[in-house]
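G., the chain you wanted modeled:
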Amino acid sequence: MTDLAQLGESIKGALGGPVTGVTVARGELTLDVAAADILKVMVHLRNAEDFKILVDLCGTDWPQRAKRFDVVYHLLSLTRNVRIRVTAQVGEGESIASVIGVYPAAGWFEREAFDMYGVAFADHPDMRRILTDYGFSGYPLRKDFPLTGYVELRYDDELKRVVYQPVQLVQEFRDFDFMSPWEGAPHILPGDEKAAAGDPGKKP
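Predicted structure as tokens:
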């Protein structure tokens, strides 16, 4: 069985500066790499380390960070029977090189990351949305994207076509705390002040 920590250090030693961090957690190896060096890292992993298969490419959003997005690559080596995760940080409005030339399967994955997060992939041959509708505004998997979206669509019987209109909530927005009903509130809920104070006029 491959020692993941040893493999990570071996890859870092071979690549040097482009690998900024190596982590083994829950039986998984993660390499943090500089976005500017992603192609160099991917070529090395494919050719020298035998990670021939790109299983997935996705994004994550960390709005509090200066470089808010992680582009995450999951690679598989059949000969080693090992999976590896590669992450690169990208700032809002920045782009990262497309890895289609190294892993052709990345084409639709990169389009999905662009559609959901707004991360652009330089030199991608068809950098356009893939899941949302034509003219869609915003990026649905960003954490600051409203849960209701901006527009909704419906079929208009008079116009005999699908129409778009701004989202209109039928009830006032509420803040749900998702507290378990079995545990009880650790604080006094609004309206319960009299009960907590032992109101003599309150019936049991």
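The chain is about 20% helix and 30% strand.

Shout if anything looks off.
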